[in-house]
Amino acid sequence: MELVYFLPPILGAFIGYITNVIAVELLFHPKKPVSIFGFKIQGLVPARSREIVERMMDSLSEILTQDDFEFMIDRAIVRAYIESDLAKRIDEIFDKYPLSFIRDIAERSGLVARMSLAISDSIAGVLKDAVAKNIAKNIDLREFVIKKAQEVSDEEIEKIFKKFAKKELRFIELSGAVLGFVIGCMQSLVIYPYLT
C-alpha cells in the first residue's frame, strides 16, 4: 500500500524526462515538413535556419567593426610576411652577417643609408595599413556568412547547435524529470488522506 505513494513521483519524473527529450528532439526533427492530421510539423531549427542565421548576422554586425577587420587583416599580413620567402632571406642575411657588421656598414654610409632604411620602413608600414584598411572596407561579413550558411546542411547545423548548447539541452531534459518528480510528490500528498 505504501508503494502507491512512490508511484506518482516516479511516473512524473519518467514522463517529465521523456517529454523534454522529445521536445529537444523536436527542435531539430523532422528536417522536412511532415503532415500529421492536416498539420504541418517541422523541427524549429530546420524550419527557421535562415532566420536564425540572419539574426545571428545582425548581432555580429553590431559587435564587429571595420577596426576589428583591419586588426585581423593587419595581423594576417604580418604573419604572411613572417612566413614568406622574403623574411627567410632576411633572416639568412642576419645569420650570415652579424648585426654589428650591418650596423657598421650603415654608419659608414652615413645619413643617406639610415634615411633610406627609415623611409622604406615607413613606406612598408603605410602600405600595410592602406592594404589592411582597403581590404577591411570591402569585406561584407554578413554576405559571406549567409552564403556559407546556405551551403551548410541541416545535419551540420544540428551538430553545431548541439555542440554549442549540449549542457543546456541536457539541463532541459533533466529539469523535466525533476519537475515531474516534484509534481508527483505533490500528487502523493494530495491522495495520501484518501488512501489512509
TrEMBL record:
Subcellular location as annotated: Endomembrane system
Top-rank taxon: Archaea
Coiled-coil regions, chain positions: none
NAD is among the record's keywords: no
One GO CC annotation: endomembrane system
Transferase listed as a keyword: no
Cross-referenced InterPro entries: DUF445
Record key words, sorted: Membrane, Transmembrane, Transmembrane helix
Pfam family membership, one: DUF445
Full protein name: DUF445 family protein
